[in-house]
Write a structure and sequence with these properties.
- This protein is α/β, with parallel strands linked by helices and 296 residues long.
- The protein has eleven helices and nine strands.
- The strands form two sheets. Strands 3-2-1-4-5-6-8 form a seven-stranded parallel beta sheet, sandwiched between helices. Strands 7-9 form a two-stranded parallel sheet.
- Helix 8 packs antiparallel against helix 9.
- The longest helix is centred in the last third of the chain and has 17 residues.
Length: 296
Amino acid sequence: MKILVTGGTGHVGSEVVKELQKRRADVRILVRKQETSPPEAVEVVLGDLLDPVSVEKALHGVDKLYLLNAVTPDELTQALIIYDLAKKVKLKHIVYHSVFRVDHFKDVPHFASKFALESALHAFDLPFTIIRPNYFNQNDLGLKDPLTKAGIYPMPLGPVGVSTVDVRDIAEATAIALTTTGHEGKTYNLVGPDIVSGTGAAAIWSEVLGKEIKYTGHDMDAFEKQMREKSPAWSAFDIRMMFQGYIERGFVAGDGDIEALTELLGHAPRRYMDFARETAVAWQSKPVAPGLPAAA
C-alpha cells in the first residue's frame, strides 16, 4: 500500500509521515522544491498542486492520499485539482485535513475553502475520511520571546477558549484512518481535553515558566495590524477572522468528541498543560525560532 502525503515536510505532515512509517506504510511525499529536506526513508516527487500534470504523476501507483493544503489564496483550486485527479485514477481512499467546526465559519476564507472541498467529497464516490482539528498546541511554539521576555500571552483566544489539539494526536488519527479499516465516510473532530482561554493560557505559562504571564486581550483590530507586520495582508485578515470566530461562535469540543477521539487513538488526547511543560523544558535547552500562528 502506497500513500501520497501532501505537506509532508511541514509541521503536521512530517508527523503524519512518522506515524505512517511506524505502521510500515510505503510513503511518498509531494514537494515543490528539490532542496526541501524530506523525512528519512520516503519517496520524494517534485510537483505543484497548481500543476495538474505533475500532480497526476505524483498520484501514479498510489493507493491512498493524505490531503493537507497550505493556507493560500488559491487553496480551494489546489485542493480540487488533486481531488479531481484522485477520482480520475480511482484512489482507494483519501483522508482530508479540514478544520474543526468548519460549517460554522463560512466567512473565514480558509475555512470556506475547506468546507467547499468537504462538500465535493460527499458528492462523489471516492472513499474518504475527514479529520477536523482544533487549534494546534504547537501553534504556540513560536511564542518564546513574548512569553519569556515580554511576559505576555498574545494569542486572542478570548474568554471562552478553544479545545486545543496536539499535532501528534492529529498525526496518529490520520495514520490510523489511512492504515486501518472502518473509517470510510466518517468525520473525526480532533480536539483536546482542555478548554484553553486567553487568561487560562497565561495562567498555564505562568506556572510552567515560574513567572507572571499576562494575557494581552482580544483587540482584533490591533491583532490584525500586528499580523500584517509579519505576513501578507490577506493572511492577516484571514487569521483575524478565524480568531474572531473563536470568540463569537466558540471552538470548544462537543458532546462525545473527546470520547470518540480517545477510542480512535487508543489513549486519551494529549493536554495543553503537558505540551506547555515539555516546551518550557525544551526552551531551556535550545532556542526556538519565532513563528506565526498557523491556521487551524
